[in-house]
């Protein structure tokens, strides 16, 4: 049983402006360690899967950078989407490539911009998920919640399945605070981490059953897989595929779903406010990055300085970021609103800073 990691690197990461830009989105930033998030994603697979069996799916603007940051990735394993069409077509593209050489190969679909603290625990969970997937299940990983988080979707978990995993009763959208509290207190819910494990042939069969509008395009890609004509077929077919997530397109419709609970220090690093989850803080709760950052009499702050001196004095629970050509100052509890800055810059046509 061969594992084929599929690293999804198509995101834009607007909540990390001014560090993230069009050409350097979140997955290329060293937010959780000295490495970019995408590099850490590939490194944690060592011993579980080979880099020669790893695929990266991304857009043309980021292809060269993605390939550079994952050492040893074969050139043919870089799958470049002609246009962004959400996760269902991206995963289908990877599944077509894997199925062409290994129909029962196991895809391990991973976001490129998440953090895992317990790598050994992560590998153990993925190995268990692969065993369940080998039996024909579409497996999703659910994270045991440790707070009533409103920024994640939830998975309602049912009884255990023969051969491993648990039933999925329902997928739930991001809840309000009271609903999130109820979910956590019930013990029936897990955070939806966006990590999936399934056989190539099984997920392609699921696409055929639940997304028949995509079948004509996938048939064309499957016929061209491994041939010189594949790039031209991809360019012609891919933009016509429906733009929809794997959750909506398949996972919420299929009956052969299994969920595996995981507890391995996962974070989606969703905003600057999440940085203290993945990086050590000082005795005052400040996370400080960059030799040019000077913090005086501050508590609970995130201070990131890339290129020039940045001095912060007397602040509490603030985010202060200097990228060298732009500065962001925002309360930690408003850090999700950074994307509004990007929208405002677009409206003002300040392309230089996007």
Automatic annotation (TrEMBL):
Establish whether keyword GTP-binding is in the entry.
Answer: yes
Q: What keywords does the record list, in alphabetical order? A: GTP-binding, Nucleotide-binding, Nucleotidyltransferase, Transferase
GO molecular function, a single term: GTP binding
Pfam families, sorted: ManC_GMP_beta-helix (PF22640), NTP_transferase (PF00483)
Domain Nucleotidyl transferase per the UniProt entry, residue ranges: 5-282
Report the CDD domains cross-referenced here: GDP-M1P_Guanylyltransferase
Q: Which residues cross the membrane?
A: none
| Listed EC numbers | 2.7.7.13
Q: Which residues form the MannoseP isomerase/GMP-like beta-helix domain?
A: 292-345
Superkingdom, natural source: Bacteria
Picking any one GO biological process from the record gives: GDP-mannose biosynthetic process
List the catalytic activities from the record.
alpha-D-mannose 1-phosphate + GTP + H(+) = GDP-alpha-D-mannose + diphosphate
The record's family statement is:
Belongs to the mannose-6-phosphate isomerase type 2 family.
Protein name per Swiss-Prot or TrEMBL: mannose-1-phosphate guanylyltransferase
Species name: Archangium gephyra
């Amino acid at each position: 049983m061969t594992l084929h990691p599929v690293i999804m690197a198509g995101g834009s990461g607007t909540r990390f402006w001014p560090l993230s830009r069009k050409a350097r989105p979140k997955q290329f930033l060293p937010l959780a360690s000295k490495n970019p998030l995408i590099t850490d994603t590939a490194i944690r697979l060592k011993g579980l899967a080979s880099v020669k069996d790893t695929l990266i799916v991304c857009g043309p603007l980021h292809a060269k950078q993605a390939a550079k940051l994952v050492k040893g990735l074969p050139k043919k394993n870089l799958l470049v989407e002609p246009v962004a069409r959400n996760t269902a077509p991206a995963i289908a593209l990877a599944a077509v490539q894997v199925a062409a050489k290994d129909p029962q190969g196991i895809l391990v679909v991973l976001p490129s911009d998440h953090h895992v603290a317990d790598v050994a625990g992560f590998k153990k969970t993925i190995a268990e998920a692969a065993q369940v997937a080998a039996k024909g299940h579409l497996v999703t990983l659910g994270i045991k919640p440790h707070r009533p988080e409103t920024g994640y979707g939830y998975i309602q978990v049912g009884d255990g399945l023969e051969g491993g995993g648990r039933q999925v009763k329902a997928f739930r959208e991001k809840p309000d605070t009271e609903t999130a509290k109820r979910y956590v207190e019930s013990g029936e819910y897990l955070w939806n981490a966006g990590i999936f494990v399934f056989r190539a042939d099984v997920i392609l069969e699921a696409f055929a059953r639940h997304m028949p509008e995509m079948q004509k395009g996938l048939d064309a890609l499957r016929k061209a897989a491994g041939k010189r004509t594949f790039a031209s077929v991809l360019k012609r077919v891919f933009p016509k595929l429906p733009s929809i997530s794997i959750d909506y397109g398949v996972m919420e419709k299929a009956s052969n779903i299994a969920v595996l609970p995981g507890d391995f220090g996962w974070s989606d690093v969703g905003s600057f406010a999440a940085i203290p989850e993945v990086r050590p803080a000082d005795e005052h709760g400040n996370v400080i990055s960059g030799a040019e950052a000077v913090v005086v009499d501050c508590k609970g702050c995130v201070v990131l300085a890339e290129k020039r001196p940045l001095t912060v004095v007397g602040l509490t629970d603030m985010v202060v970021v200097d990228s060298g050509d732009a500065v962001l100052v925002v309360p930690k509890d408003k850090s999700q609103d950074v994307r509004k800055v990007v929208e405002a810059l677009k409206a003002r046509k300040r392309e230089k800073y996007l």
